[in-house]
Amino acid sequence: MEMASSEVVNVPKSYSLNMSKDIVPMCIFSEADQGGVAVEGKVEHKFDMKPHHANIDEYRKLCRERTNKAMIKNRQIQVIDNDRGVHMRPMPGMLGMTMSTSKDKKKIAPVKGPDVKRTRRDRGELEDIMFKLFERQPNWTLKQLVQETDQPAQFLKEILNELCVYNKRGTNQGTYELKPEYKKTVEDTGAE
């Protein structure tokens, strides 16, 4: 097959066509102005175009240029003078950029989201805090402990596995309570 002259310089002009019948059956449809659909034809043969050996170098250059052009990023950096980040800061009351109604004005506790990083405390200090929390209340969920201690959940789990028993069944299902050996020390310190 010979192609008509084109404006693109490196495009090969002559190709060999390989016809095959190993194709998924397809039909060609057309759509009329009124929205009606009509069957125009059926695809029965597949044609693969391959440039002749004389044109293979030109075709290789074309493919390489196309790949290089796709890899070029046209990002631009614009420097903002004397802005000091005023336009980047959220304004008061614009958290989430949603309109609030009187129904939505319930008590909103400042809770850190799951994507906010929490900093680990010293292990001994955190264990003291945990003992004080368990003096106040015998059973805690992991979520409650994360809120109370403001520690990463994974770090809390490590300490909870050492100090506590996880209740899988019963009335306190899904909560942690101190192991019996630590309960005694808590009771002893409360008696003194």
UniProtKB/TrEMBL annotation:
Q: InterPro entries of this UniProt entry?
A: TFIIF_beta, TFIIF_beta_HTH, TFIIF_interaction, WH-like_DNA-bd_sf, WH_DNA-bd_sf
Q: Name one GO cellular component term.
A: transcription factor TFIIF complex
Report the record's Gene Ontology biological process terms: transcription initiation at RNA polymerase II promoter
Cross-referenced Pfam families: TFIIF_beta
One Gene Ontology term of the molecular function aspect: DNA binding
User: Which cell locations does it reside in?
Assistant: Nucleus
Superkingdom per UniProt: Eukaryota
List the protein's name: Transcription initiation factor IIF subunit beta
Q: Which organism is it from?
A: Olea europaea subsp. europaea
